[in-house]
Every structure is written in structure tokens, then in C-alpha cells.
Amino acid sequence: MQDGNVRDALRAAWSSCDRVVMVMAVGAAVRLIAPLLDDKRRDPGVVCVDDATRFAVALTGGHEGGANALAEHIAAYLRATAVVTTASDAFDVPTLVDVGAAFGVRTERDGDLAAVGGALVSGAPVNLLREVAWPLGPLPGVTEVDAPAAPLLLVTDRVVDPPRPCVVYRPPSLVVGVGASRGVTADEVGDLIDATLAAAGLSSLSVACVATVDAKADEAGIIEAAVTRGWPLVTLPAGVLATIAVPHPSAVVAAAVGTPSVAEAAALHRGGDLLVAKRKSTRATVAVARRAPRGHLALVSLGPGDPELVPARARRALARAEVVVGYTAYLDLARPLLPRGAATEPSPLGDEVARARRALDLARQGRSVALVSSGDVGVYAMAAPTIESSAGDGAEAPVDVEIVPGVTAAQAAASLLGAPLGHDHCAISLSDLLTPWRDIRRRLRAAAAGDFVVALYNPRSATRDWQLDEARRILLAHRSPDTPVGVVRDAYRTASSVQVTTLAALDPATVDMRTVVLVGSTRTRMAGRWMLTPRGATT
Ligand code: SAH
């Protein structure tokens, strides 16, 4: 392409694109973009890739323009090195404008981002005051305090005049309940909400939603007042609102709409405290509640052990975690992926219910928590006890639970053995610590009779040494002694071992708790060195 063409193309892209990638020497790229640079909040993010595709350099717009993230992305794709030079990334300091963003927290723009960010990068003490408990993500180098002192990160839904420099974070903690009579105008609803928030000293940036009764779902004045302020509108059945205790119930309202309160009950529909009891204008009523803090709990699968098999979603969940809970060995697996500033809470093997409760408790305090398991978190791991414990909270548990799936041991082992899971298969844990052996035996018999390939988890430990041999005998009742059996120890970890034997020759002594055993079906055979369960119909 001619030099003139590049210039024109770049000028066109500058005004129409969010991000620009330039494949050329950094020097040439700098000369080309120099006349176009204006304001880092408006300019596109620019990434420069050298002709040999060795480096992806985030040139300008690292944070605001998304160039840092794009450089990392391109580098991963090209197997190149990302060159990111903005101070907060270089020093592993959180980008203040992103703090809490994953959890709906907004930064008040006129805060002193540069001053507080500068203090963090230079290692000066920075304080964090959470007036409202809300998940933020890890904040290395920050000290949590009880009273405001600059430089400060302040999490609050109140209108404040903090000591400077201070960055104010607005959690989505306020729920505005609205009632109105038919035909109310958007101005009347909006003015009443604005005046109510102002009189109570509450920030509109912290409004999570406007809530009302289903019967008002099409009330144009309410809809417009919410939409113009960028707030979602939530509507609730009168029957639900009627169950919420409020300070000012009204028999007249109950007779008209089927609930003694609309505004106060709607404001309280996510629990929490009523900050402003109902205020009225001619045709509208408004009340404001601060909902209970909503913590975040990520149930994170780490895969079998190789960092390359840690799902990208798991990495993202860990990067947002303030506290990471898990069995000691799994925490070690996660540690290289944790951001600086994330606390870890190791717990001993066993006592999974206590571990689940602890993670839920931390999240209920309004934190972002990750609970890690090896393999898949839903397979003989922490997802089940956590969901069981959280169910006790009722449907409105104040915790958002995210479950990140991963590669379970059977799949990891299968990939090392060939294609043993190519047709129908099942998993059976031989651990009789929580399940009576007679249940396990019944399932082994059913799997044997049903001709499933069987993945045996928890096959043998120092104290459970006879179960594997009994499982072998049950399967032999329905399968040939030559049935291929894969024995995989420490799949995708250092010193992994992969062996193929037969059901007759399987030696339990070669198996331990770090092993998964894959027993073939009647159709499983060896294809060269690979174990294979063909997909076709029975021959
Ligand atoms: N959540 C895990 C399973 C936990 S149960 C998963 O999805 O993989 C623990 C059992 O899983 C171990 O006793 C062993 O049988 C098996 N296992 C887990 N990781 C393994 C690995 N890397 N190699 C072989 N077996 C493994």
C-alpha cells in the first residue's frame, strides 16, 4: 500500500473505529498517529504489531481505548509478546477506573483518579473505606479503614464531600420504589425521585433499579422517568409486594391494587433497609431502600493441573477475586493465576460443607470470593455442597453464584488414552466415606449390565484398599477379561503416568487417589496404542 493510502485509511479509521491495529515498525506507527492524537478518552486504542509478528505493542489508549487488552489478545493469538507499558499494569496495580466494574460499581468521574492512582503506583499508602459492603475485586497496596483519610477510595451511595484526593465508587445499592395513579407524567415521577434522593443525600449513580407493581408495568410516566435516567424498571406482582412488611401500609391502596404498599414494598423487594419512607406528590409516591450487599461467589474449575487447561473464564473469575478459598493443593494450582492483593484461605481436605459455608459467608459480607476445585467444580467437588448450603438462604440469597466448568479427570485421562469415552459412559466414585458401599455396588452392577464405559474416581486410598478389586470383579461378571482398562495417574501434572492393561490384569496396587481408572465396555478395543470405544452401532 502507498504511504498516502495508509494515511487516508488511518484517518478514516480514527474517526470510525474504537481500536486500530497497525502492522509496521513502531517508529512508522508513531509518525502516522502523531497528527491525529487528541484526547485519550476519545482516541481509539492503538496496537502496533511488527512485521515479523513478534510483538504486539499497546501504543496509545492502553486503558480507556482498550489497547492493553487488545495487545494481550493479539499476542495470545499470534504467539507473540504483548508489550504493555502503562504504569498500573507494569506494577500490577489495579486500574482504579475498573475497580468493581464487574460487579456493577461505577466510578464518579470527577474523582481524583490520577492523583490516587499515582499514589498507588508510587507505593504510597492509600485507604479504602467501604460505607456500603460491595464486591470490588482485589486491591493490592490498599488499607481498609473505618474513617475517611486521603488518599482515599470511598465506596458509598451517599452524596459526600470527602478529603481529597478521593475516588468515589458508586455501588448499585439503592432501590427506588414507585407508586402512581394512572396518567402520571414522567416529569412528576422523575422530579419526585430526584427530590427524594437529594433530600436524603443519596447519589443517583447508586440507583440499581426503579421498582413498582405489575399493574403499573405500562405506566408511561414511570417508564419514561426510569429510562431517561438509565435505570432499569422492575415490576412485581401485587401478591409478592403484599408479603413485604412496610412501615406505612394503607387499606385504601390494598383495596385498589391488592397490596397495602406499592412504593415502600417495591423499594424493599430485595431486602435491606428502608432509607426514605414514602413521599408523595399529587399522583406519585416514592420510597428508597438500600438493599442488602450482593456478594459474588465464583465456583471455579481449575482443570486437571496443566495451566494450559485452566479455562479462560476461570482465569477471569480468579482475577476478580478478593478472597480465594480451597483445599491447600488446589490453591497451589491457582496461586500463579491470582492477582496481587487477593487473600487465600486454605482449608484441609474433607469437611467440604464447612468450606462451602465459609465461602458463602465471605460472599454474604459483600465480597467477591472464588472457591476452587481441580478438574470440574461440579464433578465430585465443591459445586454441590455450596448449592446445597446456599439453598438454605431461600431464592433471594444475597450472593450471585457463578459456576465455571472445566476439564474433569475422566476427560483428561481419556485424551491421554485415545478415545475411550467415544460412546456411552458413566462415572462412579469408589469412595464410601459419604455413600454406603451397597449403593456403590448397585451402581457398579447396573453400569456393568448396561455396558457403559466406567470412569472410576477416588478408586483407592490407604484406608480404602479393597473396593477397587471388588469393582473389578463386578465388572468381570459382564465383560471379557481382555477388556481394555486405562490407568492414568496425575493426568496433565508433572510425573503423570498412563498405562493400559486389561480387566483381568488390573493390579489395584498400581492405583491410588491421584489415579482415575477407565474401564472399557464390551465394545472397547485397542487401536494400535490407543484405547478406542467406537461410535458406530453394535456389530
Ligand atoms: N473435581 C475433580 C474430581 C475430584 S474427586 C474432577 O473433576 O476431576 C478426586 C478424584 O479425581 C481423584 O481421586 C482421582 O480419581 C481423580 N482425579 C482428579 N484429578 C486427577 C488427575 N489429574 N489425574 C488422575 N486422576 C485425577
Summed up:
It contains 17 helices and 27 strands. The model has no long low-confidence stretch (mean pLDDT 92). 29% of the residues lie in helices and 25% in strands.
What does this protein structure show overall?
It is built from 17 helices and 27 strands. 29% of the residues lie in helices and 25% in strands. The chain is an alpha/beta fold and 539 residues long. Helix 2 (26-33) links the parallel strand 1 and strand 2 (45-49). The mean pLDDT is 92. The N and C termini lie far apart (61 Å). The strands form six sheets. The protein has a five-stranded mixed beta sheet. Strands 12-11-10-14-13 form a five-stranded mixed beta sheet. The structure holds S-adenosyl-L-homocysteine. S-adenosyl-L-homocysteine (SAH) binds next to helix 15, strand 23 and strand 25.
